[in-house]
Amino acid sequence: MGQAAVIGKIMTEQIWFEDFTPGTVLTSPSRLITLDDIDRYADLTGERHPVHMNEAFAKAAGFRGRIAHGLFSLALIEGLKAELGCFERSVTASLGWDKVRFSAPLEPGDAVHLRLEFVERRMTSKPGRGLATERGVLIKADGTEVVSGDHVIFLLCRPDDMPDARPERV
After folding, report:
1. Across the chain, how many H-helices and E-strands are there?
2. Average pLDDT of each block of 10 consecutive residues along the chain (170 residues)?
3. Which of 21, 14, 58, 8 is nearest to 38 (CA)?
4. N- to C-terminal Cα distance for the chain?
């Protein structure tokens, strides 16, 4: 599959175990971070540390202002990957994240995108699926890495009778 840049559109083909070639890199469209994103994440999780919710506190802590939660940044990796549309039917489970690093704060006004690299794969003892590791990196428009980590997933093999395995978009 080689290098693939997916900018400003949704991918239309599904990536199955057979298509998961280590070294392949996908790039998502950009997403703008807002204060509303931070507020909604705090409401959803109940995590209202003042560095995320209080401008004065965040500035006193050495930031330019409020910053997004680290786990919100990590969750954006999954959200931006989902928007690519290439794993809707082929990934059945997340087995965990390794080597997660929070390298820079994510601030309102930042535009970020995902760089997703296929790292490795192997078949499991159960037929029809394998384990795959993908490395996700959330990157600001200026090239600054916000968060990165290796994600292990169950990835299905291509179905034998696959006319079009993707769900229709409405």
Report:
1. 4, 7
2. 44 86 97 98 97 98 97 97 94 97 98 98 96 98 98 95 48
3. 58
4. 28
The domains of the chain, with CATH numbers, are: 4-33+68-156 (3.10.129.10)
Alpha-carbon distance of 164 to 13, in angstroms, equals 9
- Which residues is 135 bridged to in the sheet? 117, 150
For residues 80 and 147, the answer to whether their CB atoms sit within 8 Å is no
Angle at 2 between CA 88 and CA 89, to 5 degrees: 10
**Identity (one letter) of the amino acid at 151?**
H
CA dist 11 and 83 (Å) reads 8
- pLDDT (0 to 100) of residue 13: 86
